[in-house]
Amino acid sequence: MDFGITGKRALVLASSRGLGLGIATALAQEGANVLLCGRSGEKLAENCARINALGKGKADWVWSDLAEDDAVTALVKAVEEKFGGVDILVNNTGGPTPGTTEDMTPEKLDSFFQTMVLRVITLTNAVLPNMKAQGWGRILTVASSGVIEPIPNLALSNTLRGALVGWNKTLATEVAAHGITANMILPGRIHTDRIDELDGANAKRQGKSLEEVRTASIASIPAKRLGTVEEFGAVGAFLCSGPAAYVTGSTIRVDGGAAKSI
Q1: C-alpha 36: how far from chain center
Q2: N or C: which end of the chain has fewer CB within 10 A?
């Protein structure tokens, strides 16, 4: 299948590693030009070199920290200078600290709301006018399976990422007539550094070994394994493709069947 995105310009947030990098790599393999961003210049440069060595879509990078007040302005300026605009926006942010609802202090809520919700919405609004003008655009927001079934000890993530579900559905209905899609992709247990960190935190909280926690987690997944970043990235790239033009306002799970709800 031809994804129809050769030469399209993609901005992928938090793409120095993990899920963001997986989507960026998959987009480049389909011929898109991708701008990676994050807080590790060394990792970003290494990943761009690796993607460019594949000889398909071009990759470039820019340092970015969504906690900075001028992050959105800087990102829009960078992608304009390097690629001339954005056709595909992949909203991806790091996850907040684990904890219960009682751990959700006003300070934590405000801090993570800024980076996980406010910056995402503001950046999307900044690139929408050009997408509307050209009659084509793809907006993909990475969230978590916790928006379907809240994950224990991840109260902040469940709360803030849940807010993006209502926003995405509203956005999708507003921009569909302009040839723009807006979807959410929900990772389950995809093997990344973040999963290792969360399993480590759960092991400490439960007084168990990391291996015990990991084994129990895998046993609860119908596929009986963790997903790979490559599998996740492939689904993300399809949702940003030309053939996916009639898929919008959706929340797509990539979880090996783990979510029990319909």
Answers
A1: 12
A2: C
Looking at residue 245, the DSSP 8-state letter turns out to be T
| Alpha helix stretches (DSSP H) within the chain | 18-29, 41-53, 71-83, 106-113, 119-134, 155-175, 193-206, 210-219, 229-239
The DSSP output letter for 260 is -
| Dihedrals phi, psi of 189, to nearest 5 degrees | -90, 80
Q: What CA–CA distance (Å, rounded) separates 15 from 56?
A: 18
Tell me which residue of 186, 187, 183 sits closest to 239, measured CA to CA.
Answer: 183
Mean pLDDT of 25-54: 96
Same domain (yes/no): 35, 140:
yes
- What Cα–Cα distance (Å) separates residue 134 from each residue in 85, 101, 177, 178, 210? 11, 44, 12, 8, 50
Strands 33-38 and 88-91, bridge-based pairing: unpaired
- Percentages (nearest 5) of helix, strand, coil residues in the chain: 50, 15, 35
Question: Which residue from 80, 178, 78 is spatially nearest to 136, judged by alpha carbons?
Answer: 178
The mean pLDDT value for 30-43 works out to 96
Mean pLDDT lowest for which of 36-40, 154-158, 193-197? 193-197
The answer to whether residues 129 and 242 belong to one domain is yes
Which residue range is the domain that position 220 belongs to? 191-226
